[in-house]
Amino acid sequence: MAFGRSSRSGVMHAVSPIEPLTLKILVAGGFGVGKTTLVSAVSEIRPLRTEELLSEPSASVDDLSGVETKSTTTVAMDFGRITLRDDLVLYLFGTPGQDRFWFLWDELAQGALGAVVLADTRRLADCFAAVDYFERRGIPFLVAVNCFDGADRHPVVTVRDALDLEPEVPVLLCDARDRESVKDVLVGVVEHAMSLARARRQAAQV
User: Fold this and answer.
1) Closest by CA position to 114, among listed 97, 130, 128, 103
2) Burial of 88 (0-12, 13-18, 19+ CB in 10 A)
């Protein structure tokens, strides 16, 4: 047990451990964009995965263009946890990418501080639905472009224009396999969400 300094009476006072603030972050995007990889790269616990092998019927429904080597798919969610500071813990929920699993999104979105919309420039249109979902529900989000090996690199302004994003929505480049790169994205989400919350409070006071 940790103790603080002794008082003048000589009695030691216990110091309460820091109670961390826990925040919920969603990781969304199209099929095969790297959501499971991102959660796995950064989670300090063994991530919970709900992946199943792609079957012949699902292969006829899911567009594998650009991700032909993908053999599994998330059918419910991915879950991981990362401690950014002693007083700040993020719980990560990766959403399924296929249209037929979107009924799960409303459940996963409850209580979320913000979201990462992961994008692949080879299939950029696949993240339109996620962008629209968070915009309609007023959930703060940023777009993280997963820089796949062999994929064309585009300037951030080009991605922003292609997705028709509001000016305040951050766009970052990342590598979903790299822990430090993913941490930068998550810090960006938290900072963006808190900045919007402050702006909304100030607007309400006017």
Assistant:
1) 130
2) middle
